[in-house]
Amino acid sequence: MQFTTCKLYGIQSKRKLSYILKTSLASLKNVDLSFQSKKFYQQNRLLTNPSEELKVILQRITKYLFTIGIPEYEFGGIKDRSFVTNVEMHVGHGFVLRTDIRHFFPNTHYGDVYVFFHEIMNMSVDCATIMAKLTTYRCNQNYRSLPQGYPTSPILSLFSYLNMFEEINTYAVKNGFTFTAYYDDITISSKRFIGRSHLRVIIHILKKYGFQAHPQKTKLVKISKNSSRIKITGLLLQKDETLVPKKLYKKLHVAMKNIDSALKQSNSRLNKADAKKIVQQARGCIAAINTIGSNDEFQGYSDRIRQLEKRCYY
To answer: Edge-to-edge strand order for the sheet containing 230-232?
Structure first.
């Protein structure tokens, strides 16, 4: 990783920062007043939607940060890497340790992000403060953290705790294990036995940096060709292959029932906003299933989806 090659590295003046971010200097004087964000719930997850102006700036920051380079073990939100390629790294390994960092984004707070920009990216105090405020959200009067929904959050969660991830990776390499991270999901696998002592080390590393392993999502599993399997980032891993979870097929089935119901309604009764949402859900399920590697064409489903799309858009 080459931090010094990033355009954000070493910025010492607010004027230069405004030039690099392509926004007015005045807008950086009070970030919270200049750029508004809204909280909303989606599938029981609290997300934050930045204003269009802020979103453009955040996307620009993300583009700059990606020029630093990404470790080979990180798969979340990285071009040409996905939840599928993350799991594929562990195919053929009979022993799996997986855990989830509890409340990872909410517990990556303003101070962590500020330290990254000030100490690692060598920015002035003023510029690092502005960058930390742009990329975090004020949860209350005294607390800011990385929000789920900002394009900068995935890569900043990695860089803010790079030492933690590097420590886990070093431990995995030392023991001949394969380690991958998908946002807050950590997976370690091997062809040889992984004992509870290794799990205790990973939990200790997380605690060292102020995090906890999610108790319900922490597992040590021995998987075999025809029986045991484990779900990792929404995908089922068996000994020598990845499988589409039944839950995803059920979700597609529900979406298609809703599409069929909408097709039976007259145009005067059709709620086009809800219909568009159903279409997106169905297309998302099909895309996810095909990404995993299914040979299903879903031609009949696709035809019905297009029928509803025509009624929504024309």
So the answer is: 230-232, 235-237, 242-243
